[in-house]
């Protein structure tokens, strides 16, 4: 059983601090009786000195297969927007506790930890919340099902750390003559938020600029292309917003620059993927030749031969006139 405050007290406050650069929509999903299936996913039983007498080892190489196994059961296909997955998987006692092993054969987490986790860039993170040892011992004795409680203080620090890694909020570079004190708040530090906004604003400006450059090169290679007013307005808006975002960045107005950069990125993408341009992109000159030549070639061949016949007629007529004039 999960505590109901997982999202409202932990995930939402963290993401609210980053909402200046992007919009987040949080959705939760409960799936019961989900096993780890697929090739390379099966955990290996390893004997140990615990009360259960064993644990199950997951090799580091099998972790991508676990993502594939779980992703099929997640409801992310209902949206076209990018998703960050945060999965808390509670294994059954028959396959618990799950422990992750690195490639060198060593445990990835301390022996006393009851929580295992790993992060996949641009996908999200998975946390294995193993049932308590007493719960599994009781299950092994009489095979009676019992509730498994997952506490926030065990899982949420790991999930928040995964979010920090995904959004690249971790600063491992040493600061000269500075000591970084422990930070116990859920929300990221103010300077971490500023760094995140600045980095993503630069990314949006660069992406919008690259999209406009690609669009110019693409349109330059298509003859007789007609750009409608909506596409032209989107290109102009993206261009001016890129310049304005750079100016706001130079002045240190991060929130304003982030908002303008997002508008520039949206306008550039809308212009690049406009349906009126896509129709022309998929009908180049080579395709026109491939369509019209088979259509007109059978008609042109008799015409060419008829011109040849007419030319022979006039040549013959001219030669006959010259012969008559010589005889006279």
TrEMBL record:
One GO CC annotation, please? GPI-anchor transamidase complex
Which PANTHER family does the UniProt record give? GPI TRANSAMIDASE COMPONENT PIG-S
**Keywords, ordered alphabetically:** Endoplasmic reticulum, Glycoprotein, GPI-anchor biosynthesis, Membrane, Transmembrane, Transmembrane helix
The record's subcellular location field reads: Endoplasmic reticulum membrane
Top-level lineage group = Eukaryota
- Family as reported in the entry's similarity comment: Belongs to the PIGS family.
Provenance organism: Anopheles sinensis (Mosquito)
Topology in the lipid bilayer is annotated as: Multi-pass membrane protein
Pathway involvement?
A: Glycolipid biosynthesis; glycosylphosphatidylinositol-anchor biosynthesis
Name assigned to this protein: AGAP002933-PA-like protein
Q: Which residue ranges does UniProt annotate as crossing the membrane?
A: 289-311
Q: A GO term (biological process) for this protein?
A: attachment of GPI anchor to protein
């Amino acid at each position: 059983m999960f505590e109901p405050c997982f999202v409202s007290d932990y995930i939402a406050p963290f993401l609210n601090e980053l909402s200046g650069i992007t919009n987040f929509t949080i959705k939760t999903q409960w799936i019961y009786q989900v096993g780890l299936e697929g090739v390379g996913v099966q955990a290996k039983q390893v004997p140990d000195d615990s009360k259960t007498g064993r644990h199950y080892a997951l090799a580091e190489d099998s972790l991508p297969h676990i993502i594939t196994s779980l992703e099929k059961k997640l409801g992310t296909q209902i949206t076209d927007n990018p998703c960050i997955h945060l999965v808390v998987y509670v294994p059954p006692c028959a396959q618990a506790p799950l422990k992750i092993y690195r490639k060198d054969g060593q445990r990835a987490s301390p022996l006393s930890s009851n929580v295992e986790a790993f992060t996949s860039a641009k996908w999200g993170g998975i946390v294995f919340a193993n049932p308590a040892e007493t719960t599994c011992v009781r299950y092994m004795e009489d095979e009676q099902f019992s509730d498994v409680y997952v506490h926030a203080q065990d899982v949420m620090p790991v999930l928040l750390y995964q979010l920090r890694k995904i959004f690249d909020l971790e600063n491992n570079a040493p600061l000269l003559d500075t000591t970084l004190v422990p930070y116990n708040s859920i929300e990221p530090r103010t300077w971490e938020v500023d760094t995140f906004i600045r980095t993503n604003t630069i990314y949006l400006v660069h992406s919008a600029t690259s999209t406009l450059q690609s669009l110019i090169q693409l349109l330059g290679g298509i003859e007789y292309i007609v750009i409608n007013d909506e596409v032209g307005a989107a290109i102009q808006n993206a261009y001016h917003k890129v310049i304005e975002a750079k100016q706001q960045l130079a002045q240190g107005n991060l929130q304003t620059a982030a908002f303008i950069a997002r508008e520039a990125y949206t306008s550039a993408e809308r212009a690049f993927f406009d349906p009126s341009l896509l129709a022309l992109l998929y009908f180049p000159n080579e395709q026109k030749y491939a369509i019209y030549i088979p259509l007109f070639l059978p008609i042109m061949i008799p015409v060419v031969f008829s011109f040849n016949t007419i030319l022979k007629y006039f040549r013959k007529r001219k030669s006959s006139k010259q012969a008559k004039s010589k005889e006279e």
